[in-house]
Structure formats: C-alpha cells, structure tokens
Specification:
Elements (H helix, E strand, L loop, with lengths): L2 H10 L3 E4 L5 E4 L6 E8 L2 E5 L6 E2 L2 H8 L24 H9 L1
Antiparallel strand pairs: 1-2, 2-3, 3-4, 4-5
C-alpha cells in the first residue's frame, strides 16, 4: 500500500493521515481513538494499534473503523483566547480592564 492511497481513504473518512516514517503511519482525529498507529507493509501484512491495545492484523477499513468517525468540534473546543459570543461573564481583572479602557 502506498501512502497516497492511505491518505485518500483517511480523508474520505474525515480523518488525518500522518507519515512518521516509510514503515509507520498514523490516523489522527477519530472520535473513538484520536490516534491509531499503522504499519501497512509489515512482514505479516497490514497492522494497526491504538495506545492501549495490542497490534492487530486487518485492513485500512478496520483501522478507520477503530478510529471512529471524525470528532465534531463544539463550542468548548474553541481556543481560550477566542471569547464565546454567548458568554458575558468575565473575571474581576478583565472586568476592571474593560472599565478602565
């Protein structure tokens, strides 16, 4: 399997593909498992593993299924420097700075 094929299938599932080395790739961004390690061309075939499980033989579809669908971003995922439009409560220091300026 070539990395371009791997990346195409990962993107179609809504995941990111990362090439760590010619022998080790990763699926990133899944809801069930945000990180799935993949060894596509090992001696025994296509292997994949999450952080806690043992390495399992399978196919790219099995690895994508293990990663799960792409996690949907919510308002809680917004960076802390971006203020939420619905949140008007602020801390005392920020309130004081707003009052001064």
């Amino acid at each position: 399997m070539q990395f371009t094929d791997f990346e195409t299938q990962a993107r179609s599932a809504g995941l990111q593909a990362k090439k760590c080395s010619p022998y080790h790739w990763q699926l990133l961004g899944g809801a069930s498992n945000p990180l799935v390690n993949v060894w596509p061309n090992s001696k025994r075939g296509f292997h994949f593993q999450t952080r806690s499980d043992q390495s399992v033989r399978g196919t790219i579809e099995d690895a994508i299924c293990l990663a799960g669908p792409r996690r949907k971003e919510t308002a809680d995922d917004a960076p802390p420097w971006q203020e939420s439009p619905t949140s008007e409560r602020v801390g005392l220091i920020r309130w004081l700075w707003r009052w001064i300026w």
